[in-house]
Amino acid sequence: MKQFKYIITLFILLFTSITFAQVKFEAKVSKKRLGINERLRIDFEMNEDGDNFNPPSFQNFTVIGGPNQAVSHSWVNGKKSFNKTYSYFLAPKKKGKFTINQATIEINGEIYKSTPVTVEITSAVDKPRNPNDPDVVVADNIHLVAEVSKTNPYLNEAITVVYKLYVSPNTGVSNWREIDSPRYNDFWSQSIDLKGLKILNGTYKGEDYRYVVLRKTVLYPQKTGKLEIEPLSLDITVEVPTNRRNIFGERLMTQAHKTISAGSRTINVKALPENGKPANFTGAVGDFSFKVTTSKNKLNASESLQANVTVSGNGNLKLFELPKLSVPSSLEVYEPENTDNINTGLSGMQGKRSESYTIVPQFKGKYPIPSISFSYFDLKTESYKTIASNEMVVDVLEGPTNNTTSNDNLNTNGSGKQKVILNNDQFAFIKTKPNLLAMEKNNFFKTYGFWSALLAPLLAIPLAIVFRNKREERMADVVGNKIRKADRLAKKYLGEAKRALGQKEAFYVALEKALHNYLKAKLQIETSEFSKDKISDILKEKQVSQNIITEFISILMHCELARYTPITQVEMQQDYEKSSRTISEIDKQIR
Description:
Layout: H1 2-21, E1 25-29, E2 33-35, E3 40-46, E4 51-54, E5 61-76, E6 79-92, E7 96-100, E8 104-107, E9 110-113, E10 117-122, H2 134-141, E11 142-148, E12 159-167, E13 172-180, E14 187-192, E15 199-204, E16 207-221, E17 225-229, E18 233-245, E19 251-261, E20 265-269, E21 286-294, E22 298-299, E23 305-315, E24 331-333, E25 337-345, E26 348-361, E27 365-369, E28 373-378, E29 383-388, E30 392-396, H3 448-476, H4 478-499, H5 504-523, H6 532-541, H7 546-562, H8 569-589
Parallel strand pairs: 2-10, 22-30
Antiparallel strand pairs: 1-3, 3-6, 4-8, 5-6, 7-10, 8-9, 11-12, 12-16, 13-18, 14-16, 15-16, 17-20, 18-19, 21-23, 23-26, 24-26, 25-26, 27-30, 28-29
């Protein structure tokens, strides 16, 4: 009986030791039921250090923060414990029940997967206003405004919409992205290019603010009545001060994510007046000039001239038709060529439109080009205006005589077309006797290209054998492969850090990973063994100078502190260059 108790006790101790030695990798969420206007935190925790962490796709959610990495070591009753966490902050896209799929990580050469987590997204919930809540601070200090130049324009009158983001002096916006872009239904629209974003000082509701212009758009309403301009919505990342301070006495900042919208705007579009509208009005609205010109007034039969119909000025130049040119039937007219030289700014379209007609007379005589007119609605006087061109005469000096009637050359209605007399040399431009040359014959089977293509596969066989042997030797080098893998990871994370410049959290996480993987490659130690004293001792043994060691340790410390202090993009660039320079110096000095 006594022996049986000993066996049971030994079995319990063995089972307990095996249980404590097991690797744990699990996903935990801040809550499993939340409103669509709330934020969800998900942590992926492990009790052993690992690499190559691969998060799930987070379908039906928007990642607004993360990954944030935290590592902790502790000793309790002489036993060492380790914990590493990757954290993400998510914003739900819609209501319903959704499953967050598995994440994976490699620990001691094995792949571990987390358990899927299901959360329920409900309707928006009411939140009490807490003056210390960052979301409340954001709502009171950040505003997205759509400024419309005119809310009661005429049909086809230009208006501008300028979107401005106002931020109070004590609040900082580190990043934003569009989540809902406006669609300008029932408007002709064109965006104005912005050459960089400039921070300006201004006022909002009587208080001092800083603001930046995000977008400028010119609109021409195409319908009358009440038209709606859809809102622009942004997801912004804001840094607000807290009551906590770091070891240097500086106030710590916290990040808050908020969705803000400029709101929809209603435009009441007035119809153009029917009283006094000309019969030839085609929708031109603005301030224009009009002219008809010809390249020459005197020429011979079968020669050509150009007649240009041009409208220039400020208005909806792309949204109306030019008047058509009318000429006598004895003049052959080709389809016009359109030429536009139009610039669009905040005041609307400016420039000119023209149509160029090619005219070829067939008979000798004088042919009048009658006057044509152009009508537009003048916004300054709110009335219609009509501009008529002068009548012009085309004098054909030489050519066959039209004997059909004595008045055919003055016929402008096109009811009696004359017989066209063709010249004998009408097709003289077509080449009927081509100069063809015999192609030189070439025997491909006696060329270098043929023998190279034939022998190249035979010569490639020994090269393939050598390549395979070298590859097998490289695969057998376990230590070398491990070092090369860590070195590749260091280069990879340095590249990720460079791409993340301007995003403080992501930049310093990637930079710290790059430094750790570099140490794994050069010093051949694991991440769990890292300490600043051990790193200094090993680098000294490798004959690295003290100032380089001090600089490397200071970079590691700065990576830890930078996540909790305000950092500019210039400082991030300096940290990146400093890290690259320090790694290069260690490579040169290490023995």
